[in-house]
C-alpha cells in the first residue's frame, strides 16, 4: 500500500529532515510539502471539486507544525474540520512542535481532528509508530 | 382687644396692677404717640440700649428710622396701625458698640381717637441670639455650597425621585460640558452612556437598583456621556435621602479614564509578555530541534557530498538561532534601564549600522541616500536609537527588489532636526507591505504572509515600536505593495 504524506512546516530545513526520515522508512510513499499552511488548505479544499480521486494526491498522514506565521497549526486544524470532505475522513493529522508546551499538547489532544502530538525532531522510530497506527 | 386697650388707662384693680408689674418686668416695650415719639420705655427696653441710655423718652422711635427699615415697610406699618390694626414684624438696629440687634415686634394701638391722642404700644422680643445663630448657619451653608460646587475632581449630580437633575457641581459641569441652565430639569439619563439607555424612568430604577445590589457601598463602574457625545468611565456612589417626604438621589462620580487606560495598558503588556515567553521558549527551541534532526541524518549519511549539504544546513540553522538570540537580547535591552544617555550622533549611528549590515544579500546593489541634519543637542540613548536604525534598515535590505535594468533599489535614510525633537524617515522602493498586514507588523512575533525569509523572527518591528514608545515618540508606516515602504518616527526632546 502506498502512503501519502503531507508535510506542513514553515522551516524548509525541518521539511527536509522530515522528508529524509520518511524516505528511510523504505515504504512506498508519496510526499507533498508546504511551507504555508494556507496553501495546504487551499489544495485540500480543491479536492472536493474533483470528480475522480484517482489522479489526485489525498494525504493519509499530515505532519503539521504548530508555530507558523500567517496560519498556525491550530488554525489549520479548524479550517480542515470545516472541509467535511469524505475523501479526507481517513486522513490522520499529527502535530509537530519543538516545545513540550503543556497547553499546546492539551489543545492538540482536545482537537478531534488531531490524532497525536510529536516532539521534533522527527525520527524513523517515531514515523514507524504512526505508520503502524495507520495500518491497523 | 377692647379689654386690652383699656388696660393701661383704666386699671385700678390690684390684680390688674399685679399683671401689669409682671408684664413690665418680663417684657420689652415702649409707648409712642402718633408722631412716633416715645412717651414711655420700660426698664428692659432701656437695658438693651444701656450703652446708649440717653433721654429715650421724648425722642422719635429710633427703631422705625433705621437704615434697615425700608420706606415701604415704614408706610405699611403706619397705615396698619392708624387703621387700628396690629402690626407685626422684625426690626433691626445697630447698637452704639456696633453689635446688631433684632427685635420681633408687635405694635398695637392702645388709645384710639383723634390724631394727637393716638397711643401705641410696641412690644418687643429680643431675637438677636437666634438671628445670630441663623446667620452662622447660613454662612456655614454657603461655605458648604461653595465647597461642593467648586470641587473639580469629583462629579456630583443631584436628582429628584424621578431622576430629573436639580443640582450639580463644577466638576460635573467640567466633565459633561453642559452649562448649569442647560442641564437643570433634564433627565439624568442624558448623562448616561448609550448602552444603559432604554427608557428614562426604567434606567433610573435600574441604576439605583443595580447600585443597591453592590455590597459595602463600593463604587460601581459606569460609563457616562458628555455633551460632545463621547463616553467616559466613572466610579459611581449613589446616596439617597428624604426631605419632606420627597426622595432625592446624589450621584457622586470620579472620572476613572486614566485608571482604565492604565489598567488596559497593563493587561496588554501582560499579554505581550506571556506571548513573548511562550514564543521565545518555542522559537529558541526550534533551531535546536532542527539541528538535532540534521545531526541524526549526518550520523547515518555515507556520502561525503551529501553530508556537506547537511552541514551547510546545520550552519544556517545555527546562524538563525544566533540572530534570534541577538534580537531577544535587544528586546530585553529596551526594558532594562541601564542605557547610557548622551548627545546622539546620528551620522555615526547610521555609519555603524551600515557596516554591520554589509553582509546581507543585495546590500552591494542598494543605493543608500543619506541625508542627516545632525542636531547637536538631542539627548537620548544611542543604544536604543541604534537598534531603531538597525532594524528598519535591515528590513529595507531584506525586502529590497533585485537590481535590474529597470530597477535601481534604494533606501532613503533621513534625519530632520525639529524644534521639539527629531524626525527619522526611512524609505525604500522594495516589496512593500500588504494592506492587511500594515497594522499588525508591529505586533510581537508577527510575520507577514509575504515574509518567507527564514531569518525573520517577528521581533524587529516589535523592538522598534517598543523603543519608540519608551522614548515617548510616535511611529507611522505607509506602504504600497511592490512599490515602496516608508517609516516615519518622531522622537520628542527630553528635558
UniProtKB/TrEMBL annotation, chain A:
Record's keyword terms, sorted: Phosphoprotein
Keyword Nuclease: no
Modified residues (4-aspartylphosphate): 65
GO BP annotations, alphabetical order: phosphorelay signal transduction system
UniProt xrefs under Pfam families: Response_reg (PF00072)
Residue stretches making up the Response regulatory domain: 4-135
Protein name: CheY-like chemotaxis protein
Organism this protein belongs to: Saonia flava
Lineage summary: Bacteria, Pseudomonadati, Bacteroidota, Flavobacteriia, Flavobacteriales
TrEMBL record, chain B:
Keyword Transferase listed: yes
Ranges in coiled-coil conformation: none
Sequence ranges assigned to domain PAS in this UniProt record: 156-187
InterPro entries: HATPase_C_sf, HATPase_dom, His_kinase_dom, HisK_dim/P_sf, PAS, PAS-like_dom_sf, Sensor_kinase/Photoreceptor, Sig_transdc_His_kin-like_C
Catalysed reactions, as listed in the record: ATP + protein L-histidine = ADP + protein N-phospho-L-histidine
Stretches assigned to the Histidine kinase domain: 279-495
Record bears the keyword Transport: no
Pfam families: HATPase_c, PAS_9
Any GO molecular function: phosphorelay sensor kinase activity
Enzyme nomenclature, EC number: 2.7.13.3
NCBIfam families: sensory_box
Protein's recorded name: histidine kinase
